[in-house]
Write a structure and sequence with these properties.
By secondary structure, the protein is α/β, with parallel strands linked by helices. The chain has a single domain, classed as 3-Layer(aba) Sandwich (Rossmann fold), CATH 3.40.50. It is about 45% helix and about 15% strand. It contains 7 helices and 7 strands. It has a 7-stranded parallel β-sheet with strand order 3-2-1-4-5-6-7, with helices on both faces. Strand 5, helix 5 and strand 6 form a beta-alpha-beta unit. The chain is globular and about 45 Å long. It starts with 8 loop residues before the first strand and ends in a 10-residue tail after the last strand. About 45% of the residues are buried. The site of NADP nicotinamide-adenine-dinucleotide phosphate has 28 residues, from helix 1 and helix 6.
């Protein structure tokens, strides 16, 4: 498939549905070979088939991002199947939505494990491989809750703040290795997750996953001397300047 990412290898976590799926489809449509990671094999297989029917190339890796072996395994499989790794998109994420003091400690741990520890483990596995070739691009999908606090989203907010902090440090540490790190902070996007988080929002006001994918593509394709570290993206009907 011809495209601006021809010859590049991408790994997308959370690729089985929602924003991650849209990003995987967009990367494949631009010619990247994409490793699709999530826990649901059947859903990943469907995404792979969708990509393949459009003439693209993808490989399924079933794994939990919060497990070090899975993170290492996904990166190793990208190298084995496609010869390297150029792009990592950390999109897998979960939420639990309750007032902070009513949040079960086990739920807190689970959210932190997937949303903060997961991207840490994925980056830890990917950076040495990218560094070998002196180039790479990592895009972390945080959230508006990585920038401000939302009531009833305490654990989720804390996990995305952790991801923001990690991103800021990593970006500085890996720039000398030729690796770029970006973070995207979306507001409400029409997916399963937002239906849980914000049942008060009608679907008609939510952003589409493809709109976030377009922004991720823009960041990945950036060349030259300009670089965008962070993108905040809000629903058109929400108040400007959430940060
Ligand atoms: N929707 C929004 O309004 C919104 C706004 C801002 C930021 N975000 C962020 O965008 C990202 C994607 O969210 P979404 O809205 O697309 O949610 P979604 O539709 O619920 O998709 C979540 C994805 O993460 C995967 N996932 C969950 N736990 C995982 C684990 N332990 N290991 C591997 N994969 C896992 C899921 O696949 P499996 O269940 O198959 O594992 C699924 O592919 C999340 O990080 C979320 O915080 C969403």
């Amino acid at each position: 498939m011809e495209g601006s990412l021809q010859g590049q290898v991408a790994l997308v976590t959370g690729a089985s549905r929602g924003i991650g799926k849209a990003i995987a489809l967009a990367l494949a449509a631009e010619g990247a070979k994409v490793v699709l990671m999530a826990r649901s094999q059947a859903a990943l297989e469907q995404v792979r088939q969708e990509i393949s029917s459009e003439g693209g190339e993808a490989h399924v890796f079933v794994g939990d991002v919060s497990q070090p072996e899975a993170a290492q395994g996904a990166v190793a499989e990208a190298v084995q199947c496609y010869g390297g790794l150029d792009i990592l998109v950390n999109c897998a994420g979960i939420g639990v939505f309750a007032p902070l003091v009513e949040t079960d400690p086990a739920d807190w741990d689970r959210v932190m494990a997937v949303n903060a520890r997961g991207p840490f483990l994925m980056c830890r596995a990917a950076v040495p491989v990218m560094a070998e070739r002196g180039q790479g691009c990592i895009v972390n999908i945080a959230s508006v809750v990585g920038v401000k606090g939302y009531v009833n989203q305490g654990a989720y907010t804390a996990s995305k703040h952790a991801l923001m902090g990690m991103t800021k440090v990593l970006a500085q540490e890996v720039q000398p290795l030729g690796i770029r790190v970006h973070v995207v902070c979306p507001g409400g996007v029409d997916t399963d997750l937002v239906a849980q988080a914000r049942p008060d929002l009608g679907r008609s006001v939510l952003m589409q996953p493809e709109e976030i994918a377009e922004i991720v593509l823009f960041l990945i394709r950036q060349k030259g001397r300009a670089i965008i570290d962070q993108v905040n993206v809000r629903r058109r009907s929400s108040a400007p300047w959430f940060s």
